[in-house]
Amino acid sequence: MKASFEDFIKVLNFQIPWSEANILFVLLSGLIYLSLILLVLNAIRTAVMLEEKNSENRKKIYGSVFKGILFIGLITALTIFISQIISN
Fold first, then answer.
1. Comparing C-alpha atoms, which of 83, 80, 64, 61 is closest to residue 72?
2. Cα torsion through 69, 75, 80, 81, rounded to 10
3. Where are the domains of the chain?
4. Mean pLDDT score of the chain, rounded to an integer?
5. Collapsed DSSP state (helix, strand, coil) of residue 14
6. ∠44-50-54 over CA atoms, to 5°?
7. Residue 38's pLDDT is what?
8. What is the crossing angle of helices 5-12 and 23-53, to 10°?
9. How far is CA 58 from CA 29, 63, 68, in A?
10. For 12-38, what is the mean pLDDT?
11. Which are the contacts of 37, defined by CB distance < 8 A and separation ≥ 6?
């Protein structure tokens, strides 16, 4: 199978099923999606830790911000990812 950047983009966007794609492209795509999920989880963890440490100072500077937006973003990303895998 000839490897090209366009094929990698198609694998990354779920236009080509992972079962039919180049194994290198599948591994890279999986690594990219895993990195994004871990990045969001780290942002949630950091937000919770900083909230516990600096709750009074943060409220003075930023006001109260709904941290649930991070969870909503994570659930949305996971839903899109899983629906794309299932549809292929």
1. 80
2. 120
3. 5-87
4. 79
5. coil
6. 150
7. 87
8. 50
9. 37, 7, 16
10. 89
11. 74, 77, 78, 81
Average pLDDT, stretch 69-81? 81
Helices 55-62 and 23-53 meet at what angle, rounded to 10?
Answer: 100
Token pair listed for 13: 């966007």
Distance separating alpha carbons of residues 88 and 42, to the nearest angstrom = 29
Q: What is the mean pLDDT of residues 42-49?
A: 81
DSSP state of 21: S
pLDDT: is 20 or 51 the higher one?
Answer: 20
For the segment 2-10, the average pLDDT, to the nearest whole number, is 84
Q: Which of 26, 34, 32, 33 is nearest to 8 (CA)?
A: 26
Question: Do the beta carbons of residue 30 and residue 85 sit within 8 Å?
Answer: no
CA–CA dist 32, 14 (Å, integer): 13
**Gap between the Cα atoms of 14 and 65, Å rounded:** 34
